[in-house]
Amino acid sequence: MSTSFNTEELAAAPAPRNRTVQGLVFRSTGRWVHVKAGKEIVRARVRGRFRLRSQGHTNPVAVGDKVSLQIGTDGTGMITEIHPRTNIVSRRAAGRRVGKEQILISNVDVVWIVQSVTLPCPNAGLIDRVLVAVEAQGIQGGIALNKMDLGAGAMLDEARILCSRYEQLGYPVMQVSALTGAGIRAFGTMLKDKIGILTGPSGVGKSMMINALDPSLTLRTARVSTKTHKGRHTTAHTELYWLKGGGAIADTPGIREFGVLDVEPWELSHHFREFRRFVHDCRYAACTHDHEPQCKVKAAREAGLISKERYCSYINILDSIHAGDADVGR
């Protein structure tokens, strides 16, 4: 059956007007972002004035941002306002954009640092750097150790020692296997009614863990290189996924470096939980706990109240802050 149109009626009909809505940015792919506004999914651009204001950032609008946007007659949107953020998770941008800030996500409840028992092996230095950024923003941090099914012998013992170190500091630690499903249900309960993010190196299984949390999601995954034992980048951008069990989780591109930003040398120790009880008893108020005399943090380290591994990690981060090039993982 054919359908005819009255061209005069169409010409007389008013064109759809622009309208302004509010929504949540759940995907960022460069110049375009995707916004969930009620039941609508809107592909939107970012106004140039936001880019001018955010020349110190690689991305003026980030996943997790609550925004106002104007939807045009073609169905695409233009971000007109970025609402105030409660927090951000960011790092110093690597590569040629050193010195700029890369915002991974905003308005987040929990940051899960994903590591694997092997392929690749755990990187405690990277864990500590992310935890410094998390502590500085007052966000809950945790460690998820994946590929427990591959652990055996001394390798598994070392992984469990690592877990114990952070559990003793009060950080939640989840031991899971995205492949077998072990621990995944318990991990899902930690995400219920929260907005979380998985961050960590390529190859640790972040995307696979999200697929295991919600089998209706089919995120792309890849095997770790057998030659380099490093992961291949399969996630090209940060994206937030709503889980059937409640809550939402963001997947992020793999990171090999995490540069600490906006932390002064004298305040770094305040973002190491086990240091806090000693920092106010040092001889100098701005003690960096490196070379100063009568330092209570160094005394606590010598007494075994602070682990050698965490103190060494602290010194590495402190050195990179002094040097202004915090783009190293260990």
Q: How would you characterize the overall build of this protein?
A:
This protein has 330 residues and is an alpha/beta fold. The protein folds into three domains: 66 residues, OB fold (Dihydrolipoamide Acetyltransferase, E2P), CATH 2.40.50; 144 residues, Rossmann fold (3-Layer(aba) Sandwich), CATH 3.40.50; 59 residues, Ribonucleotide Reductase Protein R1, domain 1. Helix content is 25%, strand content 23%. It is built from nine helices and 13 strands. The strands form three sheets. Strands 10-9-8-11-13-12 form a six-stranded mixed beta sheet, with helices on both faces. It has a five-stranded mixed β-barrel with strand order 1-2-3-5-4. Helix 3 links the parallel strand 8 and strand 9. Helix 3 crosses helix 9. The longest helix has 16 residues. The protein is globular and about 70 Å long. The N and C termini lie far apart (69 Å). The relative contact order is 0.12. The N terminus and C terminus are likely disordered.
| Total number of distinct structural domains | 3
Unreliable stretches covering 5 or more consecutive residues: 1-16, 224-231, 326-330
Order of SSEs: HEEEHEEEEEHEHEHEHEEHHH
Strand content: 15-25%
Mean pLDDT: 87
Helicity, in percent? 25-40%
Structure summary, number of beta strands: 13
CATH homologous superfamily assignment of the largest domain: P-loop containing nucleotide triphosphate hydrolases
Total of DSSP H or I helical runs spanning 4+ residues: 9
Distance between the termini: 69 Å
- The CATH architecture category of the largest domain equals 3-Layer(aba) Sandwich
- Which class best fits the helix and strand makeup? alpha/beta
Radius of gyration: 23 Å
The largest β sheet comes out as: 6 strands, mixed
Q: What order do the strands of the largest sheet run in, or round the barrel if closed?
A: 10-9-8-11-13-12
Question: Which oligomerization state do the chains in this entry correspond to?
Answer: single chain
Broad shape: globular
CATH class group of the largest domain: Alpha Beta
- CATH topology term of the largest domain: Rossmann fold
